[in-house]
Amino acid sequence: MPFARGPPGVWMETMNSNQSRISVVIPLYNHQHYIGAALEGVLGQTVPVHEIVIVDDGSRDQSAQVARDYAAGDARIVFWSKPNGGAHAAINDGIHRATGDLIAILNSDDIYHPDRFQRMLAPLQADPALDVVMTGLDFIDGRGGALANTWYEEAVAFHRTSGDLGLTLVNGNIFMTTSNLLIRRRAFDELGYFSALRYAHDLDFFLRVVGSGRTIHRVDAPLLSYRQHDTNTISEGHLKVKVEWAAVVAHYLHRLWRAPDAAAVDWQRTLPMLDLLDRHTLTRPVLLFLNYFDRHPSRTLENHPFFTDVAFRQFMNSVVA
């Protein structure tokens, strides 16, 4: 049974409004200054969670000790450390260990707003066929101060204009992060798990959801604080990001246009996509990836030959340079 905070040191039994059990998976890596705030955001939810699964991905600072201290005070927190394998691997390990029927992910530097799960559960209760819910978000700096993000506002405005979520995500990931995800566990059986991408494993998964024909319900309120700081993975290098961006877009389009069970292509809808690829100078790398995926078809990018094909990866790095 879930618990809610009572007086200091006391946890009181309570019930979720719809009896759903939410497991929060936290991949932790070198965030000793942020993991406490992340955990407080989970523990402070108006709808208490079933469990928190923290997977330390080989942190070299005091992150693991901070998490261990929290786990010692709350039986719902499951914690372990493993050798560094990347965020995707830590998330996947956490999902496999989780026991809830709803899975949420929280990167160890982001923060949930207190009513996040309460607001997200409502559409899931209303529609048993709905599997995925996301929300709007705001942005904070390393000290928790508010930040403006013009790129995000423009990307959301693009979606309001286009009304096409697949096109929107190719243009820019308006969901921003795996921290934004609340998903029914059953969906992983069909969709698979997160691919071994350093920068775009979130976008790859979101496009996989869209490509499967599932609806993503977006609660249009900022219920997640995305922290921007110097050690964000996405800030490491634009060219590295662009190769992965092209790969996941091409795999999404391959599923839409070339898979054996793909629906008939709506040629009129391809034109905005081609215009978008041109605008982002993605056309050439996406076409190359499409041909590569013709030769190496797969349902997902999990365990795809692309990850071990050193010659092709080096070639694609040169193409986007």
TrEMBL record:
InterPro entries: Glyco_trans_2-like, Glycosyltransf_2, Nucleotide-diphossugar_trans. It comes from Nitrospirillum viridazoti CBAmc. It comes from the Bacteria. Residues 23-191 form the Glycosyltransferase 2-like domain. It holds the Pfam family Glycos_transf_2. Signal peptide: none annotated. This is Glycosyltransferase 2-like domain-containing protein.
